[in-house]
Amino acid sequence: MRFFKAVFFLVLVFAAFSVHAQSSAELKRQREALTQQLEQLNHEYQETANNKKTTLKQLTLLKQQISIREQKISNINSEVRNLDNQISESNNFVHNLQSQLDQLKKEYAAMVLFTYRNQSAYNKLMFIFAAKDFNQAYKRLKYLQQIGTYRERQAGYIQETQTELHVKINELDKNKKEKNNLLVDQEKEKKTLGAEKNAQVQVVADLSQHEGLLKQQQQDIQKKIAKKNKEIAATIRREIEEARRKAEEEARAAARAAAAAAAKAKAENKDVAVVPKVRTITKNSSTSEVLNATPEAAKLSSDFLDNRGALPWPVTNGSVKQGFGIYYDETRIKNESLGWDIKTNPGASVRAVFQGEVSNVKDVSGTYLVVIKHGEYFTAYSNLKSVSVRAGQKVSTKQVIGTVATDSSTGEAIVSFSLYKGITAVNPKIWLAPN
Asked: Bigger pLDDT: 431 or 129?
């Protein structure tokens, strides 16, 4: 019974260690990813700083570095706590193994002593022949045989426990060394974080001397964004009105055809055929009803919805520089992003995230905007240097529609991507596949 309890205990401990191992592996993967992002940001910051001119990009990069470094420090803290738990459990595990080993050795010693005292064949025979009857004699014989088997098993348990104890002690030492290395890395990151925050203060001080110029730059950027959003909204409204107009015309044509058929049947003294009632589009119809008025549009909308969370990114390689929603720029002005600004490689191809029809291609403040209709959904791609599609053209998923433009002052290649359901902008995060 004691043996089965020990086995059950080992199973529980192994399960706990398996969970910790998975958690540790995930934390380590996250730390490596954060380190890689920091290296890339540091490289960009050094390039910007070498221009010997304080810019908004320097401040943006510093803020990104500080944010990611704080994430890395938090990640290291989680790893240290995880290792502390593993070390504590390893200590308990080693203690329990040592207790089990001592108990096994004690039982084994008692068994060896008993065997030694009864090792002669004469004593064994006397033990058997002293039985009251044949049945008891048989049981005593089996008992002696089982003692030998049990002794061999106990010796095996002792050896296995010793081996496991050695493995866990080595694992405990390894975890302690890893914890020490993490603490050293954490201290290094904290020092670097302090230096970056000091640099941020200096950059802000330098930028404040050119506050007027910075505000003008921000205003220009906001004007361009507002113009882009206005053009997207106008494009979607045109599509809605056009879909409404076509649906109303088709409804009127169907009504005229039904009336003509009824008049003809009456003139020929025939029964009027019952025409199935068709859903008509009126001025009071919702945007969704208008855009899904045709079977083709309704199917495209359904297919687009079915791919929520699995749509490909508009670029093959990229990272989100500005997410969806309310944010504050470097001059503390409140803004709202209706999509994602995705940083990618200069000259990168921009592609459609789903099949559909190009609704609009337009030059907005020197770069191109492309709007694609997917039933009642729309996707917009702006800040394109060149385009390879035209309005009215059918496109397929991942088809290249143009190339991203590169900002001559910062050297950054950023494509702005937004997604709409009707006239309402939605967060691309819940639609695009994890990058």
From this structure: 431
DSSP 3-state of 210: coil
**182 and 47: one domain?**
yes
Q: How far is the C-alpha of 101 from the C-alpha of 320, rounded, in Å?
A: 56
Do 133 and 16 reside in the same domain of the chain? yes
The 10s digit of each residue's pLDDT in 214-223 is 666 677 777 8
My answer on whether 349 and 406 are in the same domain is yes
Nearest to 293 by CA among 259, 257, 256, 242: 242
pLDDT confidence of residue 249: 79
Claim to verify: residue 180 and residue 226 sit in the same structural domain: no
Q: Verify that 45 and 145 share a domain, yes or no.
A: yes
pTM of the model: 0.54
Task: Choose the final residue of a domain: 164, 186, 208.
Answer: 208
Closest CA to 318 of 434, 210, 435, 433: 435
Nearest by Cα to 105 from 148, 158, 163, 165? 158
Residue 252's SS3 state is: helix
Q: Could you tell me which residues come within 8 angstroms of residue 315 by beta carbon, excluding any fewer than 6 positions away?
A: 342, 344, 348, 349, 350, 351, 404, 415
